[in-house]
Amino acid sequence: MKSIKEYKNLLKEVLTPGRYEHTLGVEYTAACMAMRYGEDLTRTRIAALLHDCAKCLPAQDQLDQCLAYGIPVSPVERDNPNLLHAKLGAWYAREKYGIEDQEILSAIYYHTTGKPGMTLLEKIIYVADYLEPNRNKASNLDQVRAELFLDLDQCLLTILESTVDYLNSRSLSIDPMTEETCNYYRDLLKGQKKD
Ligand code: DGI
Ligand code: FE
Ligand code: FE
Fold first, then answer.
1. Domains of the chain and any CATH numbers
2. Using N-to-C axis directions, what is the helix angle for 152-169 and 120-131, rounded to 10°?
3. Distance CA 75, CA 174 (A)
4. N or C: the chain end with fewer CB closer than 10 Å?
C-alpha cells in the first residue's frame, strides 16, 4: 500500500478535475465519519480516494475491460454503464494500486449499490459519496447531512430510498443489489423501532 499523498498524485492523473475534487470531498467527509463512528482513518481515506478510480474511463472501455478481466457483468450493468466503475474500480485497486485489504476492496466494489449487512467502512464510503460538500443535485441533502453524525443507519436508509425514488422517477432500471439493500435497511430500521 502506498501513502495517501502518493494515491492523491496518481488519482489526479486519471480523474477529471471535477471528479478529483469530488474524490477529495469523499476523503475528508469519510475521515470525519471514521472519527465519529470509530473506523481506521488510513484505510478509510484510502478507500475514499480510490472509490471512483475507474470512473473517468469511457463507458465502452469500462465494459470491455470488465469482460477482459472476467468481472461478471449483469444485464442491468450492461444497460447502465455508470454501475460498472465500482466493480472495475475494485479490480484496479487490487491490481494497479496494490490494495490487499479486503474491506477496502469491498467498500469500493459496493459503493454504488450498497449491499445488505454493510460493514462500517462500506457504509462510510457509500454515505460520504452521496453527501460530500461538492454534491449539490439531490433534493434531500440538508436532511441526510443533518442525520450524518446522529444516526448512520437512518442516514443510509434515507439515501437508499431517495436513490430508488430518483431511479424510478427517471425510469432507470434498478440494480437488484440496490433494491435488496434498500429493503434490508428499511426492514432493519422498522424492526429496531418496534423494540
Ligand atoms: O460515481 P459517483 O457519481 O460519485 O456516485 P455513484 O458511484 O453512487 O454513482 C451514482 C450513479 O449511479 C447515479 O447516476 C445513480 C446510479 N445508480 C446507483 N444505483 C443504481 C444506479 N443506476 C441504475 N441504473 N441502477 C441502480 O440501481
Ligand atoms: Fe462512484
Ligand atoms: Fe463517487
1. 4-194 (1.10.3210.10)
2. 50
3. 11
4. C
Ligand 1 nearest atom to the CA of residue 82, by list position = 12
pTM of the model: 0.97
Task: Please say if the pLDDT value at position 81 is more than 90.
Answer: no
167 lines ligand 1 (CB under 6 A): yes
78 lines ligand 1 (CB under 6 A): no
Report d(CA 125, CA 112) in Å as an integer. Answer: 9
Q: What is the DSSP string of 40-84?
A: -HHHHHHHHHHTTTTTTS-HHHHHHHHHHTT----HHHHH-GGGH
| Ligand 1 neighbour 77 (Cβ under 6 A) | no
Judge residue 70's burial from the number of C-beta atoms within 10 Å of its C-beta, 0-12 exposed, 13-18 middle, 19 or more buried. exposed
The pLDDT tens digits for 129-184 are: 999 999 999 999 999 999 999 999 999 999 999 999 999 999 999 999 999 999 99
Q: Which ligand is nearest to the CA of 89?
A: 2
CA angle 11/2/103 to nearest 5° reads 85
**Rounded Cα–Cα distance for residues 82 and 84 (Å):** 6
Cα distances (Å, whole numbers) of residue 88 to 20, 91, 92, 137, 161: 18, 5, 6, 25, 25
Q: For residue 192, what pLDDT band results from cuts at 50, 70 and 90? A: confident
Measured distance CA(182)–CA(12) in Å, rounded: 33
